[in-house]
Each structure stands twice: as structure tokens, then as C-alpha cells.
Amino acid sequence: MQPRQTPVDGVGLGLRRALMGPLSRAESVPFDFLEVAPENWIPMGGRLGKQFRTFTERFPFVCHGLSLSLGGPAPLDFGLLADIKAFLEEHRIRCYTEHLSYCSDHGHLYDLMPIPFTEEAVHYVADRIRQVQDFLEQPIGIEHVSYYAAPGAQMSEIDFINAVVKEADCQLLLDVNNAYVNSINHHYDPYQFISALPGERICYVHIAGHYDEAEDLKVDTHGSAVIEPVWDLLAHAYRQFGVLPTLLERDFNFPDQDELFAELNRIGDYQHQWPASRTG
Hints:
Order of helices and strands: EHEHEHEEEHEHEHHEEEHEH
Number of helices: 9
Largest sheet: 8 strands, parallel, barrel
Shape: globular
Helix content: 25-40%
Structural class: alpha/beta
Distance between the termini: 10 Å
Radius of gyration: 18 Å
Mean pLDDT: 90
Low-confidence stretches: 104-110
């Protein structure tokens, strides 16, 4: 079986503006690639733009979009897509991913809303993903999102995700924390969920912390440390699919550098325990 080709390798970190100063001063860093939301950087120039370029010239980058609204009722924003395409080319971005959700309807909703798990929605969103891929002239990855209600569901989450990925012929961004959060909130086995994903389509992995609203309600926040059950799910993903590029998301409540680097080093330690990536 041939190893799967991934756009990046090793350990990744979501680059936030608050981290740029400390990271630029660090003598060495325990990551191999970085990720940004293109919407946050497309309009950026001046000092921050120059500082950003010092990172893109030093490290491989991937992009994770926030506002394409793949499942939304409004037409796709091809003006935004043109800006994203130019940004990907300018900074030699290795991979572009977006959320399997929607966030606008002729106006921004400022949240990631769940797409109904229906056959009609599969065809609708798969067609929009194909349009995006045709416009960008490259495959994209979609991330299964955390969600807190499933309006109008006619199929399971895993069946919906797999159907969209197959029909759109796109890649998949595996978010281990989202699998854990959804498993608690919607009462399913996260190990079975991950095992049922199309491993050959996974481009890379997200891992993050979340907020415990209640014993049976977890909220995906990216504002705390990764907990042990989520680390266990990452290990399961590696056992199932082989080692995959894995990125730590931290959006606020940034810990000191030693604590942040310790989480990144833990990803690296996990990656050394399993064989290289393979189709799964």
C-alpha cells in the first residue's frame, strides 16, 4: 500500500497575531508548519504584512477559511475566492481548507451553523465544493464542525460527511476535538466515528481544547489545553490511519511559551510512536 501524500508534514501551529512576536524571538520552535485564516491576512499590509511574510518565507503554510459559507443559501462569494486564490499563490500556501457549515445568508451570521444532514444538502454542498475547487484549480479540504443542534436530520453525521466528501471528490480535515465534543453532545462513540472516516482523503489534523459547559455539554473554543481523552483520540487516529500532519489550534488564553511548546512537543512524541501515514 502506497503512503498517502499530504501537503505538509509533522507538527503545526495556528499562527495568531498575539503569537507572532514571541515566535519570532524564539531561538528554536517545535513545529514544522503554520496555519492562518486567509480572510485575516488578505487585507494586511504595512508592518504586520512584512512580519507575516517573514513567517511565510521561513515555514510551509496551510490556510483554513472562515467565511466561504459552503452550506449557505446565498451564492458563493467569487470575489472573496479570487482574493483567496491570489493569496494562496502569493504565499505558496500548501493547502486550503474550509468548514462543512455555513455562516452567512446575505449577511454574516458570526457563527458556524450546522448544515442539515439530508440527501438534498449533500448534493447542494458537494456542488458548491466542486465549484470552489474548479475556481481555485486545486482540491480543498473540508472540516467536520462542532454543532449543538441537528435540525432536519435525515441521516447520521458520519454518513453525511462521507457522502459529501465522496460526491465532491474533495479532501478531509480531521478535527479530533470536534469529534470528541460532538460525541459528548450527541451521544455517540468518537472512536467509531473516526474509524469510519475516509482516511485516504485526510489532508491533515486539528487538535484543540474546549470548554466544559456541563458534564453533557462541551463547547469548542480553542481557548484551553488539550485534555487527555482528546489526546487518546489522536492516538487512535494514528493507529487507524498512520501518522498524519497535526496542528494545534489555540485562539485565545494563550499559555506561556513553555506550556505551548510542551503541547506541540507532545504531538511530535505521538508521531514518533506510530508508522508513517498510509491510506486507511
